[in-house]
Amino acid sequence: MNDIPFADYLRRFDYDERVAMKIQLPELLKLYAEGQVQLIDIRFNEEYAAWRVGIGRHIPLNELPDRLDELDPNKTIVTMCPHYDRAEIARLFLTLKGYQARYLTDGMLGLADYLRGDKARDYMARIATETNTD
């Protein structure tokens, strides 16, 4: 992958990029079930130890530069944190490293609220079905 200088990224930043850098829950959940995205929880280790959502991989933001080999360059990388501030920092870093990256605008709190009860059961069943059809 080729690094993109920050100044070059800023020069080409436009309304399309502003939309493309974000992803909301319905699209994320669809693409994740289809295996098109890799979901990365970028919270600190203590936060992850305290609670997790059960999907995605944990790579703390401060470890991300040293763990790029854990990312799938053939998938869109979606970063998430409780809200979205650190997820956007991670998304920008990954974009500058040449990855196709987006951040979850609803944050993990939105994800946890969305995947409750029957929705969680049905979604996990969908993931199991779609990942076993290869």
Automatic annotation (TrEMBL):
Which CDD domains does the entry mention?
Answer: RHOD
Q: Residues in domain Rhodanese?
A: 33-120
Signal peptide: which range, if any?
none
Q: What is this protein called?
A: Rhodanese-like domain-containing protein
- InterPro entries reported for this sequence: GlpE_sulfurtransferase, Rhodanese-like_dom, Rhodanese-like_dom_sf
One Pfam family hit: Rhodanese
Species this chain originates from: Allochromatium humboldtianum
Output the SMART domains linked to this UniProt entry: RHOD
